[in-house]
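Narrative progress, year one. The postdoctoral researcher (J.K.) led the effort to move from monomer predictions toward full complexes, under supervision of the PI. The following entry was the first complex the group processed end to end, covering 582 residues in total.
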Amino acid sequence: MKPSVNAAPLRALLIGVNSTRSEKLLPLLENLGIDLLPKEHARPDLYQLLQVQQPDLIFVDVNSPARDTLEHVVSSDPNLPQPVVNADGDLRISLRRLAGDIDISLYVRNTVSPALLQALIDITISHCHSFDVVRHEIALLQAHENTELIREAIH
Amino acid sequence: MGRPVMSVEKTDVKLGHIPLTDCAPFAVAKEKGFFDEQGLNVSLSREHSWASIRDKVGLGVLDGAQMLASMPVAARLGVAGPRLDMVTGFVLDLNGNAITLSKRLYSAVVATDPDAGFSPLAASKALNLVIRANAQNKRPKLRFGVVFPVSTQNYELRYWLGCGGTNPDLDVEIVVIPPPDMVDHLKSGDIDGYCVGEPWNTVAVRAGLGHVVATKYELWNNSPEKVFAVSRSWSETYPGTHRAIIRALMKACAWLDQSENRLVAAEILTKCGYIDQELETVALSLCGIHQRHPDRPPEDAPDFHVFNRYSANFPWLNQAEWFIAEMYRWGQLKNPVSISCIAEEVYLPELYREVAAELGVPCPAINRKTEGNLSPQMLQNFTPHLGPNQFIDGKRFDVGKVLRYLEQHELSQANISELRQRNETVS
C-alpha cells in the first residue's frame, strides 16, 4: 500500500474531523505514507486554503457544516479532489460504511486510481473499526478491574 | 374514498432534514402521527449540510430526505457534484426564501434610489449602480452567501442580480455558507448579503443587522422550494413505502396549510428540537407575517410559506425544466441534453397522481404549465388550485419553450444553437 519511493506522497487534508477520529486517522495516514496537510482552519478560508494546499485527498466529517462550502470550492475547480459517492459493488458498500459507520466522506483527486481508492477506504474502515474494538475492550477491562477493586474493598 | 394502497415493504425508515422552517412537513408528519397512520416507524435525522443529505441518500444511509427542489435534477445531471439518480414525486413547499442585505449595503442602495426600500426590482437596479460605483473606486467586490452551488437560493440570487444588470459571475462574489452561519458572516462583514430560507432572514432583521430586499415569492410567485427525494433504486425497491411516506407528507402539508395550525407548527419546530430558535422568530413567517426591516412594522405575507394550496405538492415538469435552464444560463451545465427527458426522469407527476388518488385528493391532469402568466388579480375569484406565477421581470416561461425563455435573458452563458439540436421538439 505504501507508494513507491519515487512517487510523490499523497497529501491529505482533514476537515471538521474531531480529535477522537483524527487520533485514529493520523497513524493510519502516516503508515500509508500520506502527508497530512495543516489540520484546522476557519471555514471561510476554505476557498483560499484548497487552492494553496492542493490536497490529493480530503477526509471530511459527514456532519461538518463546512461540507457545502467544500462542495462549492471543489465544484469550481476539477483539479481539486471531488466527492466520491457514485459507485457500484464493493466500493459502494465501502463508501456506505465509511459515511454511515465512520462518519467520514471522502474527496479524491482524479489522479488517484480506483484500486488505490478502494484499498484506502477499506483500510480506513478496518483501522477505525479495530481502533474502536480495542478501545471498547480496554474500557471493558477497566470496568472489570474497577469492579474487582470495589469487590476487594467491600470484602 | 380513494383507490387501494400498496403494502409497505419496509416499515423502519430514516429520513433526513435540515433545520429550516420548511422542514415543517416532516416534523408535523412525525409529531402529529401521520407517519404512524401509514404504518411507518420513521426516525428523522437532523442533517448539517445538503451535500451530506445527497451523499447519505445516494449511498442508502438515509431512505429519503428533504432536498432543495433543484438538487435531484442537478444530481441526475452531475452538475456541481457526482451524478446520482434521484427522483421526487412530491414538492414539500413553495416560496419561503428571501434576499437580505447588510445594513450598510442597504443604506447605500436606498441612497441611490429611495424606491429600493419598497421594490425588489428597483433595489436590484440600484444595487447595480452601487456595484458600478464601487468598481470605479477600485473597491473590493461585494460578497453574497448562498447555501449550496445548485440551490434554489443560488438561482434566485442570480436571477435578482441579473434583473438589475449585475453579472453574478463577474461583478460580485458568491460564496457558500451554511444557513445557520449566515447571520454571523453578515455581522462580521465577511458577506454583504445573502439568499437563504427562514428563519435566517428574520433573525438578521430582528437583530438589526440587515434588510430584506426581495422574497422568493416576489422573484417568482409560488415557485417550488423543497422536495421529498429518494434514490431511483430505493424507489424501485420500496414502491409501497415510498407511496406511504408521500401519503403521510401529503396529509401533513394539508394540515400545515390550515392557518389555525401554523402557530402549533411553529411550536412543534421550536419545542421538539427541529430548529434552535425562539418561537416568535419562527412563528412570524410561518403565520404569514414578514418582517423585512428592523425599523418598520412587519408586513402581511400570507403566501410566504405555502405547503399545500395552489397544487403546491405537485411535481410540475416545467419547474424541473426551469432549474435546468438556470444551470445552462449560469454555465453550470454545458453539454447539451434533452431538457424535457431529464425533467421526466427526475420529477414524477404520475407517482404523485397515484398517491393523490389513493387519498382521494384532486390533482392536476396536466404535467406542465406556463409560468409568468397569472397575476394575483386574475385569480381573485377562483378556487385555490392554481396560484399566481409571475416573475419579477415580467418574463414568461411557456410550456415547451425552454430555449425561447433562455433567449430572453441578456445575461446568459447558454449555447442556444447547441441546445437546439437536442431540444428541437420542445422549443
